[in-house]
Amino acid sequence: MALDAAAENLLRELAPQVLGAVIRRCGDFSTAEDAVQEALLAAAVQWPAEGMPGNPRGWLIQVAVRRMTDHLRAEAARRRRETAVMMMAADEVEVPAVDQAPAEEKDDTLILLFMCCHPALTPPSAIALTLRAVGGLTTAEIARAFLVPEATMAQRISRGKQSIKASGVPFGMPTGQEKAQRLAAVLHVLYLIFNEGYTSSSGPGLQRSDLAQEAMRLGRAMHGLLPDDAEVAGLLALMLLTDARRGARTGPDGELIPLAEQDRTLWDREAIAEGVALLTAALAAGSVGPYQLQAAVAALHDEAARAEDTDWPQILALYGLLRRMADNPMVALNHAIATAMVQGPAAGLALLEALDADPRIAGHHRLDAVRAHLLEMAREPQAARAHYRRAAERTTSLPERDYLNLRAARLAGAGERSPR
Amino acid sequence: MKYMLMMNAKRGTGDWGVVKWAPEDLKAHIRFMKKINQDLRESGELVSAEGLAAPAQAKLVRARTDGTPAVTDGPFAEAKEFLAGYWIVDVERPERAYEIAARASAAPGPGGAPLNMAIEVREVMSAPPVEV
User: Fold this and answer.
1) Do B44 and A147 touch (CB under 8 A)?
2) Which residues neighbour A395 within 8 Å (Cβ) at sequence distance 6 or greater?
3) What pLDDT score was predicted for residue A90?
4) In this structure, what are the phi and psi dihedrals at residue B88, rounded to the nearest 5 degrees?
5) Interface list for chain A against chain B, based on CB atoms closer than 8 Å
């Protein structure tokens, strides 16, 4: 017997609250996290057989604390044997009262997110630890999603914990300027998780697309905890507005379908409405940031009934704002596309020339792919074809390579010409 | 990003050069390879690693016109090097894959001298596609 979806959702929602409660009582993050993982696994086995306990949260805390007590006892016994010194008895750990102030619970989930996404961690470790400690996923589930063995993922999680320990971050809420920086790190990790997931559509990708759902679930939880933060809302809106197009992004064989050619009736209207509402409220609040601006671009695409109805001048203006906010060559690339859509391909191609001199993107397949598209727009099929091919040779995404080769093949008959 | 590290070993005068090594050299070589795998597992970078059976056991297979397999027995005299084994690693940047490859390349051979095997490093097509 397996847990039903409602029970599973409840478990995942309780995971960070239970972990927070156990850390508050027993101190050590790393040991507490292992104990909570064991409690979650115990619940997954016992609840379907014995029924859900009356107080699931209390049950999980009790089981986790008991596991922790067992580990500490075993550890103490080991040390007694080794050093013949009485160590602090694990019996001091009390099984807690099951009730806790709701405000503290809320803080715990946030504090955990801040810890797991601490800049001392490498992105892969931060992603894995966030999914386990805050998302309540098992190591095996995370390993499957990233297509690596469970033992490898377990090591990544354990290295993440070591980094947290070494960095000496206390279990507490960062304040002031530090809080803003740490929040940005959390948002970045959630966005990375989302990106890993939303682009996949078939085969093992089915499991990977759960990552997008998980990122949105965590984004939703964060928005619930920090409803007044415009960038948190902006990121959630961006994820919703992007994921809304998932059903139309790929064809039956998993081939990529470009935005302009997607069947827009397949787009998720509900997700679009929710994303737009979130974004509108966030923008009205005043402090505009990059996630809100990217969400605004996604919203303009989503709101166009046909590709030709897209409000490109508005998108161009948004990319102009984004460029001023951050010197990012990918933003510059999108800015060039928007320019081409508004002022014609020649204007876009002229902007790409400046990027050829930028070592961060020169030689990147995206630059060739965009140039190919704009050359195709400019009715230069031979040059377009050469750049599609060059982009296809350089991409490390299989569906993207197929797409680029197909675009090149569609221009067949235009004659051969090697790029530059 | 995932990379496949393909270890190309020089073909010995016989089929499988290592059979001529002194036992202690072979032991040192095996220990070295085991240690690499263990280190990669501990660093959370190992996806898989396999050593391949000797090329004498290799077959070349082509489909006949009716689709049935036409099997040719190895070894294949034209090949100067053969694929002895591979790793698939999941690393943060290409330089790390090169670093692992260099370490594997310097695996000890006869007399403990580094073999300097050629390790072909190829990225696995696993990046998420960008929106087009």
Assistant:
1) no
2) A365, A369, A401, A404, B127, B129
3) 38
4) -115, 120
5) 122-125, 146-149, 151-153, 155-156, 159, 195-196, 198-200, 242, 249, 256, 258-259, 366, 369, 395-401, 403
* Tokens of residue A37, six digits: 């993982």
pTM value? Answer: 0.84
A145 alpha carbon, distance to own chain's centre: 12
Distance (Å) from the C-alpha of residue A335 to the closest C-alpha of chain B? 14
Q: Which residues contact B129 (CB under 8 A, 6 or more apart)?
A: A199, A256, A395, A397, A399, A400, A403
pLDDT at A109: 87
Asked if residue A377 has pLDDT above 50, the reply is: yes
* H or E element, residue B120: strand B118-123
Per-residue tokens: A34: 């292992």
User: CB B128 to CB A200 under 8 A?
Assistant: yes
Alpha carbon distance A10, A90 (integer Å): 30
Q: How far is A65 from chain B (nearest CA, A)?
A: 28
In chain B, positions 61-100, which contact chain A (CB-CB < 8 Å)? Answer: 90, 92
Q: Are the C-beta atoms of B15 and B9 separated by less than 8 Å?
A: no
Amino acid A95 reads V
- Asked if B37 reaches chain A (Cβ–Cβ under 8 Å), the answer is no
Instruction: Please give the Cα distance from B22 to B26 (Å, whole number).
Output: 6
pLDDT digits (tens, 9 = 90+) for B30-42: 999 999 999 999 9
10 Å Cβ neighbour count for B96?
16
Query: What is the Cα–Cα distance from B57 to B44, expressed in whole angstroms?
Result: 33
Stretches in chain B below the pLDDT threshold 70 = 12-16, 75-78, 129-132
Rounded distance between C-alpha atoms, residue A236 and residue A280, angstroms: 12
Q: Please give the Cα distance from A215 to A130 (Å, whole number).
A: 10
Q: Given this model, what pLDDT does residue B66 score?
A: 95
Residue B41 touches chain A, beta carbons under 8 Å? yes
pLDDT band at A92 (very low <50, low <70, confident <90, very high): very low
